[in-house]
Design a protein that fits this description.
The complex is a heterodimer. Chain A contains 15 helices and 18 strands. By secondary structure, chain A is an alpha/beta fold. In chain A, the strands form five sheets. Chain A has a five-stranded parallel beta sheet, with helices on both faces. A five-stranded parallel beta sheet of chain A has the order 16-15-14-17-18. In chain A, helix 2 links the parallel strand 2 and strand 3. Chain A is globular, with a radius of gyration of 21 Å. Chain B is of the alpha/beta class. Chain B has a single domain, classed as Aconitase, domain 4. Chain B contains eight helices and seven strands; from the N terminus they run βαααβαβαβαβββαα. Classes of the chains: A alpha/beta, B alpha/beta.
Chain lengths: ~425, ~160
């Protein structure tokens, strides 16, 4: 039998000799991540009635969605989490200061090739950039994982997407994944695992790869995996003691669908209201007035993203009628961005820098938008009402397009008027 | 078997409209129930009754892993969601909350907004009392039925542990 990466990881995790798509396996979880919803998970865990979690060293809890707490109810939830962490001796807890879970997980070495990682967040697919099978689950089943260390999973069919060619200037991995989502639609990869290959992937930084695996969820993917290379090993080797060995697909593994892209043919893209698959060339929506711009999130809140955005400033100021919100993905990203002078550039240009966290991406706080307003964001979802009013519009784009638009006050092609 | 009414929606009904992020600050059932579907259909939370079913086109529940998108429907009394297809996270969450999820394009096409229905999970049928048609759907896998019959994953695990 020949197997895909997802099949191999699920076979190992479930102790099965063979697996096939559609089969349901009971798998042992290697790492279990929960963010603010750990409050709900711990409540349900209490209801199950098991006194101790299965393995306090395999649970990771970063608080990131509403940080610091934006109201009393949220503050109480955070207190519950801290108490639970102490009581259970959870080893890997990251309080409100650290940043977004999907950035924290790799930064602190909680991801590694071949692991089965589950998280109570849909964008848990991100860690596929490191060769892991990682997927989102609900709070109640996470409570069951905390109790037993196991979870049922259907073995997914796999899509193979090959990205060849080199990205043109001012085009980023964000534009590539928006193109793919536009082609496959919001339901096009429902229940599927996606494997990404190709020279364009090889050329990408680890962070750029994370953008693609993160947003693969927006077409319904269960997991999105890339074969880890030296870049991944270099990133992880000082951060984890896990074995750094790639799980690779067999040469004759069976794929349900195979797609190929030449990324040199892809230009800057924008996902328009109100679905992520409503993807257009930036030129089609250029000139649309924006009132807010957000540069940050687990999708595009890393140093390379802030750098790409800052280049679009080119000494100019943010448009008077635009709020540009910068949210570094983590404290480490924040520090590095300061050391590189990026934060100073943004503040001088009139941007608002907020603490690392998810805030504006899900309309939790720190940048809610009003009826009639438009926001262009480097985040991952533009559902109606996600950032505030249901009568507002959200446009998703690369960090360069976001900042170019924030400077111009209207959606702007980053290739136009660029000075680099 | 409880008779109920059909609430029908389109495709890609996402978790942000089923339970908007601004209401994720509490896990209280009454609070969540009172805001269910608020950004899609303001009438829903006010008028929904125990036994009603939600019917939708493809990709129901796409988006976030937020379990509250499933639980808020359960707290409203919704006994089943019937859709042409589901997002995997909503599908799992609904089962874990004890809400039946039926993937059936045929049933969706034969149900209209406001129809009175008798939903029979064990029998695998939906009787449309308004049109007089009886619709059938493929039974859910046995282990899913066990969870649903227990009233959700927590009750199911408690039962299992008691054995």
């Amino acid at each position: 039998m020949a197997y895909t990466i997802a099949e191999k990881i699920l076979m190992r995790a479930s102790g099965s000799k063979t697996v096939e798509p559609g089969e349901i396996v009971n798998a042992k979880v290697d790492v279990a991540m929960s963010h603010d919803n750990a409050a709900l998970v711990s409540k349900v865990f209490g209801e199950i009635g098991v006194p101790k979690v299965w393995d306090a060293s395999k649970i990771v809890i970063p608080i990131d969605h509403r940080v610091p707490a934006n109201n009393i109810k949220v503050a109480e939830g955070h207190v519950k989490i801290r108490n639970f962490v102490k009581k259970q001796g959870i080893k890997h807890f990251y309080d409100v200061r650290e940043g977004v879970c999907h950035q924290i997980m790799p930064e602190f070495g909680h991801v590694a090739p071949g692991l089965l990682i589950v998280g109570t967040d849909s964008h848990t697919t991100t860690y596929g950039a490191f060769g892991a099978f990682s997927t989102g689950i609900g709070a109640t089943e996470m409570a069951a994982v905390w109790a037993s260390g196991e979870l049922w999973l259907k073995v997914p069919e796999t899509f193979k997407i090959t990205l060849d060619g080199s990205l043109k200037e001012h085009v980023f991995s964000k534009d590539v994944i928006l193109q793919i989502i536009g082609d496959l639609t919001a339901e096009g990869a429902n229940y599927k695992s996606i494997e990404y290959y190709g020279t364009a992937v090889d050329e990408m930084s680890v962070g750029s790869r994370m953008t693609i695996t993160n947003m693969s969820m927006e077409m319904g993917a269960k997991s999105a995996i890339m074969v880890p290379d030296q870049k991944v090993f270099d990133y992880l080797k000082t951060r984890t003691n896990e074995k750094l060995e790639a799980v690779i697909a067999d040469a004759d593994a069976v794929y349900e669908k195979e797609l190929k892209y030449d990324v040199s043919q892809i230009g800057p893209k924008v996902a328009c209201p109100h679905t992520v698959d409503n993807v257009k060339d930036v030129g089609e929506v250029a000139g649309t007035v924006v009132h807010q711009a957000v540069l940050g999130s687990c999708t595009n809140g890393r140093v390379e993203d802030l750098k790409a955005g800052s280049r679009m400033l080119a000494g100019k100021k943010i448009h008077d009628d635009v709020r540009l919100i910068i949210a570094p993905a983590s404290r480490q990203v924040y520090l590095e961005a300061m050391e590189e002078g990026l934060i100073q550039k943004f503040v001088k240009a009139g941007a608002i820098v907020i603490n690392p966290g998810c805030g504006p991406c899900l309309g939790a706080h720190e940048g809610i938008i009003a009826a009639g307003e438009n926001c262009i964001a480097s985040t991952n979802r533009n559902f109606q009402g996600r950032m505030g009013s249901t009568e507002a519009g959200i446009y998703l784009a690369s960090p360069a397009t976001v900042v170019a638009s924030a400077v111009a006050g209207v959606i702007t092609d980053p290739r136009e008027g660029s000075t680099w | 078997m409880v008779a109920g009414k059909v609430w029908k929606y389109g495709k890609d009904v996402n978790t942000d409209v089923i339970l908007p992020g601004r209401f994720l600050d509490s896990y209280e059932p009454e609070y969540l129930a009172s805001h269910a579907m608020e950004d899609l259909d303001k009438e829903f939370a006010k008028a929904v009754k125990k036994g009603d079913i939600v019917v939708a086109e493809t990709n129901f529940g796409c988006g976030s892993s937020r379990e509250q998108a499933a639980s808020c429907l359960g707290y409203c009394g919704v006994q089943a969601v019937v859709a042409k297809s589901f997002s995997r996270l909503f599908y799992r969450n609904a089962i874990n909350q004890g809400i039946a999820v039926i993937e059936s394009p045929e049933c969706v096409d034969a149900l209209n907004k406001g129809d009175e229905v008798d939903f029979d999970l064990l029998g695998g049928t939906i009787k449309n009392l308004t049109t007089g048609k009886t619709l059938t759907f493929r039974p859910l896998p046995p282990f899913v039925m066990e969870i649903l019959e227990s009233g959700g994953l927590v009750e199911h695990l408690k039962k299992k542990m008691a054995k």
